[in-house]
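May I ask for an example protein's residues together with how it folds?

___
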Amino acid sequence: MTIILIRHLKVDFRWKPFYDARGFAEACAGYNDAPVVRPLETFTTDRPIWASSMRRAVDTARLLFGREPDRVTDLITEVPEVPFLSTSFRFPRVVWDAFGRLEWLLGVMTQPESYADTVRRVDKFLEGLLAAGKDCVVVSHGWVLKVMIRRLAAIGFRGPRPIYLGNGVPFTYRR
């Protein structure tokens, strides 16, 4: 079985360098609603395409492959992120991201989801994918795809283990 993983295309959104808690929450919502940038190249496939239900993943599938995804699911949406602290003090965006993801990894429940929750979502998605037993394309998000790559390796799939998943770049995994 072959699974091709693709991180959504670059999002047409400009982050500011500093945010207070409210501004960061608003920026995250704006990023989630923003369109993606059109790709320089497109692909063709007759394989089923699975996509996260978030706009940027569905739009990526449509723009990269010229068709709607065959299946859209909430199981592979991006790991949600909210401010780790309610404050009017302005922190660099990288601080908001770093502490939010650290809390996610550690299971600190100021975040809507823990790493363990994400693993459960990904495992449930992979169960359905493996039950279908067909080669496929999956369009999702960076943090979820990193978890998915680890889970695929654990069940015998081979493929790259990139540190950074480029936008719109296919990564192939086989078992």
